[in-house]
Design brief:
By secondary structure, this protein is α/β, with parallel strands linked by helices. The chain contains 16 helices and 11 strands. The longest helix has 31 residues.
Length: 499
């Protein structure tokens, strides 16, 4: 039951995108932990529910990682053990209004801590954060500009906790209703008083999506053919997907000359992605490279956050056996060292990201703080073509746009490619996984600094502070109980021979 209850939020994410389901999906899991006979059993329910959630949210990885995805889910599911314990501690039995009020703050805080820890790049990254299910809800995107995806996740858990109380704790329903009212008031206040991104102009960006083509050579030729179709379309930038170029441009100068000719034909710079062994450095890198009419411009970004098992194997001497049970990386890619903001001839500044780096809120935030006007993601989800992965990945661009007040271009090799404006609104139509085309988007630019870019992930800091206060209070109560405990020996039980 815990495994199934934990898996319930999955349909809130793309491809189903039942965003409204996220507001009630945690209730069965919370009821199960609340009804557990002991705190230890609630911790077990929290662990298994967390594993079920991760398995359901990442089910498209199963054909590639096989049994290893189960092992990872069980390990990361341990992050929800404190959530189970605290749910039982605060909501078990007949809790009073004070306990329920504490639950409305502390349970979302513990949930954020679990999401924060698993967002570490070496544990797989922040894929499937609960707040990401709201990527198509305009009021939620406005909230994201204030507190990022973290604020959305916090409020969603508040609503689920309040729903649990309304069902199971009759004596504290007033507190639950007050919590729901506070959430509604916060959303209304942000909608009414927080400014939105200003649009000082537009830029024309072409996305080249070759489609499902086997082999890097034919894929490159299809990308070149589509790029030539952009002649006289008056575009400012042409974006190719991840791994669109399979040879290093320093060791294959003729390839650089071909790309330069394509840039001249299209009348715009090309942003390609090179997945190859570098000629000037040891190892394989995934790099965004800007190509101008005269060849490579010298502006290059090397991917910094790699996909565990897909692009490298953590602790390869210990876990290298994963290559024998799935499609894990045969050789580790190398990491870049710093973000890069590239400048186009017309002074437009773009911030490139590669693949699942778009899942990390801090990376897009840092690029905007460094001056990026447009965020560009080069991706390839061809391995997961017939799964939920392409739609899930594209939806993340809407959140990053809303958080930063900057448009984001999500360009893939095989779909889904999509563009979102500075408020997270879709621009033009998506390019599905069955599309092979070059599509031109008129992209509105954003202006100003969003509260999230200015302040950062303050909901996370607030959650940490709330949990610290609770732990200090619990520790103080434990010390007082220990001090009030009667002595093991009564006054009459004195040592013989002593007064």
């Amino acid at each position: 039951m815990a495994l199934l209850a934990g898996a319930l939020p999955a349909p809130a994410f793309p491809a189903p995108s039942l965003w409204w389901w996220a507001y009630v999906a945690l209730v069965p899991w919370l009821l199960l932990m609340r009804a557990a006979p002991t705190g230890r059993r609630a911790m077990l329910d929290g662990w298994l529910g967390g594993a079920g959630f991760l398995l359901a949210a990442h089910q498209w990885l199963m054909p590639n990682l096989h049994v290893f995805i189960v092992i990872l889910a069980l390990l990361l599911g341990l992050l929800w053990v404190p959530w189970g314990w605290l749910t039982h501690r605060l909501l078990h039995g007949r809790p009073g209004p004070r306990q329920v009020a504490a639950a409305l703050v502390l349970l979302p805080s513990v949930w954020l801590m679990a999401e924060l820890v698993r967002s570490w790049q070496y544990l797989g990254g922040p894929w499937g954060l609960l707040g990401a299910s709201q990527w198509q809800v305009a009021p939620a995107l406005r909230l994201a500009s204030v507190g990022g995806v973290w604020l959305l996740g916090f409020l969603l858990v508040v609503v689920n906790v309040a729903g649990t109380v309304l069902i199971a704790v009759a004596r504290a329903r007033t507190v639950a209703l007050a919590g729901l009212t506070a959430c509604g008031a916060a959303a209304a206040g942000v909608w009414a008083w927080v400014p939105t991104a200003k649009e000082p102009g537009t830029v024309r960006i072409a996305v080249v999506q070759p489609g499902v083509i086997q082999g890097p050579g034919p894929r490159f030729e299809r990308g070149a053919e589509l790029t030539r179709q952009l002649a006289d379309r008056h575009v400012d930038l042409v974006v190719w997907g991840e791994s669109s170029v399979a040879q290093d441009l320093t060791t294959h100068p003729e390839l650089g000359r071909r790309l330069a000719a394509l840039s001249r034909t299209a009348g715009a710079d090309l942003l390609v992605n090179v997945d190859a062994r570098r000629g000037d450095m040891p190892g394989i890198y995934k790099s965004s490279v800007l190509i101008g009419p005269n060849g490579p411009t010298g502006q290059r970004y090397d991917k910094m956050r790699l996909v565990p098992f897909g692009e490298y194997i953590p602790a390869r001497p210990l876990l290298g056996w994963a290559t024998s049970v799935g499609k894990a990386a045969g050789e580790d890619r190398h990491r870049g060292t710093e973000p890069v903001v590239m400048k186009l001839p017309d002074s437009l500044r773009i911030g490139p990201l590669v693949c699942f780096e778009s899942a990390f809120p801090d990376m897009s935030r840092n690029l905007v703080r460094d001056g990026a006007q447009v965020l560009v993601v080069q991706s390839s989800t061809s391995t997961f073509q017939k799964s939920w992965a392409p739609a899930q990945h594209a939806s993340l661009a809407a959140l990053r746009s809303a958080e930063t007040w900057r448009p984001m271009v999500h360009a893939t090799l095989t779909g889904e490619s999509a563009v979102f404006g500075p408020r997270g609104e879709p621009v033009g139509s998506r390019m599905s996984t069955s599309t092979s085309a070059a599509t031109v988007y008129t992209v509105p630019l954003g202006q100003g600094t969003s509260p999230y870019v200015r302040i950062g992930p303050w909901p996370v800091y607030g959650a940490m502070a709330a949990l610290a206060v609770y732990c200090a209070a619990e520790g103080g109560r434990a010390l007082r109980r220990r001090a009030d405990r009667p002595s093991d020996r009564s006054p009459d039980q004195r040592t013989p021979g002593r007064p």
